[in-house]
Amino acid sequence: MKCERCGARDAEIHIRHQKGKEIADFHLCRQCAEHMAKEGLIPDISFELPINSFLWGLLPGHEPGHPGSDAVPSPASDLVCGHCGLDRSSLRRSGSYGCPDCFKVFHEDLGPLLRKIHGSEIHRGARPRNACGNDSSPEEVESLRMELRDAVEKEEYERAAVLRDRIRKIGECHEDRG
Amino acid sequence: MKIGAREIADSPLEWVGGKGEYSGMILSSRVRLARNLKGHVFPWRAGKEELADCAQRVRSAIRSEDSLRPFTLFEVDALEPLSRGVLIEKHLISPALARGGPGSGAAVDGLGVVSIMINEEDHVRIQAILGGMSIHEAGRIARRMDELLEKLDYAFDNRYGFLTACPTNVGTGLRASVMIHLPALTRLRRIGKLAVDCGKIGLTVRGMFGEGSDSPGSLYQISNQVTLGQTEDELVEKVSGAALGLVRQEETARGRILAERGPGLEDKVWRAWGLLTFSRVIEAREALELLSLVRMGSEMGILPEVKVATLNALLLDIQKAHIQARSAAELPPEEIGRKRSEVLRRALADPGVES
């Protein structure tokens, strides 16, 4: 059974909420259940993990106690942000970034994390007037192109359209400047 | 500038006036934008000096902008606890910001529309609140403020958008929310199901007061969960569409409870009116429940009309810090309930309901 809230993950938590004569059944995944309990929409059962570290727990390479997880230590596990000193385990514990540089230092986890949270990892909204192409290195444009190819192959056209627009925009920015 | 709790309590708050469409059911529309300064550590991880430096930059950016000059700047540490409480009740600062610390502050405009929080979870949090269904206009105001402060040089990434401490705010940094009164849907126990439906389209439904599974006063906040991958307009439009859908569902639900329990409902509404206008001691939770019935009763024509602005103002005026701020001496807890009943009697005596 799929979670009735997100429709994506398996429903792991089944709640029957009886109030007077009304009975409401909820079939939810752990993440949605925790969300709703936090918002007071279903009774607050302890789900053990704080939501932020829970999100991080969804990422590969973060399964404490899982057999074999210690066997091959990830080379990225001792990453530390040079600007604010945040290390990867504190990031996962707090669920918060320490400074803008962290987004580059911990970029490996960032894409999957943002897609879990937002269903997307590419900003389509407003941009500061001075931000035009500021950080778009040729490598970044290339990585966007690769991602575009990947999206088209996987027939994820909505994502592909966003990527295409982004690449086009960066191109226009460079022309304006040149 | 030293500002007392009473002055803050008496300062205007635009949404309370009840302008804007559907202001009976939709109390307020709010848009907030989260921003950080480029090259600076986020507040939760920053040291004293960095916090003070960031606050200084934001303050001088506000001060140097002509159109922002009439804003009142608060330093949280300079405010007494009661003043902080009043600002929280008015939603001009968050409970997190009210804890204070180096550089924690806020700037509020003279009409009570815009508040700019400094060194909260992010360096800058801009919010605009208007009455009724005005979420698009609130979004435009917040964006205008944002553009004025852009010279601060925000932390922005071409791919991920505006960078924020918590990954749930990255991208637009935009949270659009609508405060909505849904008494009939609450009575029909439809809120849990509606919340699930809202969740499916990326919206969150939360009780306005307290955390219980039913929010006292049937007041809920609808807001966007996602901040990345959609434009500001799309996010605002989604919240707006859902809120208007809820207004229609609430109207239908009111029709249904009137048809099914007409005399019982009428009796309940008039009893609520009786308690609000005659009681001598009243707790906040009970007052919220009764005000909810009176608000619905007034809109359904069960009671003669009570002005939306009167009912909106009462939601603030019956809260603890507001009552305390308007008393000459500090009130013991049991006195607050007595004062609250006085506030209600005085405010509701005016619209003069005749039976």
Could you please describe the fold and organization of this structure?
The complex is a heterodimer of chains A (178) and B (355). Chain A has helices spanning 30-38, 51-57, 88-94, 102-105, 107-118, 138-153, 157-177; strands spanning 13-19, 22-28. In chain A, a hairpin with a 2-residue loop joins strand 1 (13-19) and strand 2. Chain A has 178 residues and is mostly helical. The longest helix of chain A has 21 residues, at 157-177. In chain B, helix 8 (232-278) packs across helix 9 (284-299). Chain B is of the alpha+beta class and 355 residues long. The mean pLDDT of chain B is 91. An 8-stranded antiparallel β-sheet of chain B has the order 2-3-4-5-1-8-10-9, covered by helices on one side. A two-stranded antiparallel ribbon of chain B has the order 6-7. The interface between A and B is large, with 58 and 58 residues.
The SS-based structural class of chain B is alpha+beta
- pLDDT averaged residue by residue of chain A: 73
The number of helices of chain A is: 7
Q: Can you tell me the overall shape of chain B?
A: globular
What value does the average pLDDT of chain B take? 91
Keywords summarizing the entry:
heterodimer; A: 178 residues; mainly alpha; two-stranded antiparallel ribbon; 7 helices; B: 355 residues; alpha+beta; eight-stranded antiparallel β-sheet; 10 strands; globular
What's a concise summary of this model?
The complex is a heterodimer of chains A (178) and B (355). With 178 residues, chain A is mainly α. Chain A contains seven helices and two strands; from the N terminus they run ββααααααα.
